[in-house]
UniProtKB/TrEMBL annotation:
<feature type="domain" description="BTB">
    <location>
        <begin position="72"/>
        <end position="126"/>
    </location>
</feature>
<feature type="region of interest" description="Disordered">
    <location>
        <begin position="32"/>
        <end position="64"/>
    </location>
</feature>
<dbReference type="InterPro" id="IPR000210">
    <property type="entry name" value="BTB/POZ_dom"/>
</dbReference>
<dbReference type="Pfam" id="PF00651">
    <property type="entry name" value="BTB"/>
</dbReference>
<feature type="compositionally biased region" description="Basic and acidic residues">
    <location>
        <begin position="39"/>
        <end position="48"/>
    </location>
</feature>
<protein>
    <recommendedName>
        <fullName>BTB domain-containing protein</fullName>
    </recommendedName>
</protein>
<dbReference type="InterPro" id="IPR011333">
    <property type="entry name" value="SKP1/BTB/POZ_sf"/>
</dbReference>
Length: 288
């Protein structure tokens, strides 16, 4: 891609993004990084679809867009290869693309370059937003779809990605690893996904502090977030301790009044010990 063409794209995106900042504050910072060629693009490189099966599936689905048909009126040029798409469909799903397509310089254009993007990623994006396909969000494409969904302002795609990650955390079988929980918390912070933030925050607060501390990404979170996680965990443990102590006092009183014959000196009877143990196990499960 020629430098002046890439510069023209960046200028267009930056201009449109600035116009939308007042209405879509949650998108501004990630998009500006992407438009300026910053760390957002690095994250896209990191999160690109690399699974062999997914690559093959993307190749199969790309055939939907590799030839012109009665519905296509625009060619997206990605890595020098054309993708035939509908201007109307993309305008409906993406306010950013709509603004680009309807600008005075682009409204009559039949070929639109997407510099700095990868062909497989854009094919995957199209498959996830086209109404006749609506490909499922998976572990293999969620990172890329979050990045492109945020960049192009596709709210529904962001919601699908968030829902996938939330369900993955809530499923809990097998229990998510510390790295997965912290990764979800980082994603929630980066894209302003409140439901995912709450779910991942609660999961992190129930994890041993040592496990969290061994995850490098945890320390890359804002200080207020890491502090809040530890405070929340402390409160959960304090509440657990309070309930167990309350149960011990309650059972001790009951046992001294009604189980005198079963007690050995001042200790509790076997049944009352078991009752306390059951309560302790139940409460500890709530913080683990």
């Amino acid at each position: 891609m020629e430098y002046d063409e890439l510069e023209r794209w960046d200028d267009q995106v930056l201009k449109l993004k600035e116009e939308r900042i007042s209405k879509m504050d949650s998108y501004s910072e990630p998009f500006m990084r992407s438009a300026a060629g910053g760390d957002h693009i690095d994250k896209t490189e990191k999160g690109r679809i690399s699974n062999g099966a997914s690559m093959k599936e993307s190749d199969d689905l790309s055939r939907t867009f590799d030839q012109s048909n009665e519905a296509s009126d625009l060619r997206l040029i990605v890595e020098g290869k054309p993708l035939y798409v509908s201007r109307i469909v993309l305008s409906l799903v993406s306010p950013v693309l709509k603004s680009l397509f309807t600008s005075s310089e682009s409204e009559d254009t039949v070929e639109f370059p997407l510099p700095g993007k990868h062909y497989e990623d854009i094919v995957e994006f199209l498959c996830c937003v086209y109404p006749n396909i609506l490909k499922t969000i998976t572990d293999n494409n969620v990172d890329v779809m979050l990045q492109l969904g945020d960049e192009f302002g596709v709210k529904k795609l962001m919601e699908k990605c968030e829902d996938f990650l939330v369900r993955k955390l809530e499923k809990g079988n097998p229990r998510p690893r510390p790295e997965e929980i912290i990764n979800c918390l980082c994603i929630a912070e980066r894209y302003g996904l409140e439901t995912l933030r709450k779910t991942s925050f609660d999961s992190a607060a129930k994890m041993e502090s040592e496990l969290l501390e061994n995850v490098q990404e945890f320390w890359e979170l804002p200080n207020v977030t890491t502090t809040s996680v530890f405070i929340r965990r402390l409160k959960l443990l304090e509440n657990c301790d309070k309930k167990i102590r309350s149960k011990i006092n309650e059972v001790n009183t009951h046992c001294s009044l009604y189980h005198k014959g079963e007690r050995s000196t001042d200790t509790l009877c076997t049944k009352c010990f078991a009752c306390i143990g059951k309560t302790a196990v139940s409460e500890l499960k709530q913080v683990m």
